[in-house]
Design brief:
Elements lengths: L1 H20 L3 E13 L9 E12 L2 E12 L5 E11 H5 L8 E13 L5 E10 L6 E11 L6 E14 L2 E12 L8 E11 H4 L7 E11 L8 E12 L1
Antiparallel strand pairs: 1-2, 1-12, 2-3, 3-4, 4-5, 5-6, 6-7, 7-8, 8-9, 9-10, 10-11, 11-12
């Protein structure tokens, strides 16, 4: 498990700055998160998660990757990770394809892997939107193919990030939502994960946007495609961006 954390850390902290010097990487951001939640429906009800997350934009698109190190109480560690490179049609063609609230069209792919399970492959297209007040608002439309199930299905993934302020206090609303069809006997399922975070670093006189804390809420209907298993779990979260 630790080799995956090390690989992503090396990529985010060493490869990206090197590539920036060659004018390939345009921006990059990495963070580590600590979460604690209770009343999960499958497996142990209480668990701790450490998430390492990285994103960067490059000359032809962007890449997003994350990995969860999961420790259910009373059980061994497990993991789950995703790697999502996308190619911008505007950047590849050299033409501005924005129109109205549409920022760009992209080719999107994702590789998913959990411990002791076969990989899942997603491929399709994406539309990024200009939404006032949002740092980003992205919609990916995929064909979803699990190597452990017969057939294929569809998946729509939406991701957003909106910083805002109330008085002198800085906040962040961000998250994602996955909507997936039935595949290989598994039911359609919906996973919605919003976060609401307060900028603790800014409140304590440190640089803003670095240390945040708050709540991540996970709602998962038909979790893993299991009919009738619906999970509704708030998790305490601390997030450090480096």
């Amino acid at each position: 498990m630790y080799k995956y954390f090390l690989a992503l850390l090396l990529a985010s902290n060493f490869f990206s700055p090197l590539a920036q010097a060659n004018d390939f990487i345009k921006w990059q951001s990495s963070n580590i998160q600590l979460l604690r939640g209770h009343d999960f429906e499958l497996g142990e009800r209480d668990r701790t998660l450490i998430t390492l997350e990285h994103a960067h934009g490059h000359k032809y698109g962007d890449t997003y990757a994350w990995i969860d190190l999961i420790k259910p109480d009373g059980e061994d560690y497990t993991y789950y990770g995703e790697f999502s490179p996308r190619m911008s049609l505007s950047k590849v063609t050299g033409r501005d394809l924005s129109y109205g609230i549409i920022k760009d069209f992209l080719i999107s792919t994702t590789f998913e892997k959990a411990k002791d399970q076969g990989p899942q492959y997603l491929y399709g297209g994406a539309i990024d939107f200009h939404v006032p007040g949002f740092k980003f608002f992205k919609t990916n439309l995929y064909v979803h193919d699990s190597t452990e199930l017969d057939g294929e299905t569809w998946q729509v993934t939406v991701a957003w990030n909106k910083p805002f302020e109330i008085g002198d206090v800085k906040f962040l609303s961000e998250g994602f939502a996955d909507f997936q069809g039935s595949e290989g006997g598994r039911e359609p399922n919906q996973l919605i994960v919003p976060r609401f975070l307060i900028d603790i670093g800014d409140l304590t006189g440190h640089p803003p946007g670095k240390l945040m804390a708050g709540i991540e809420y996970q709602y998962w209907h038909n979790k893993f495609g299991v009919d009738g298993i619906t999970e509704s779990v708030p998790q305490a979260q601390v997030k450090w961006t480096f």
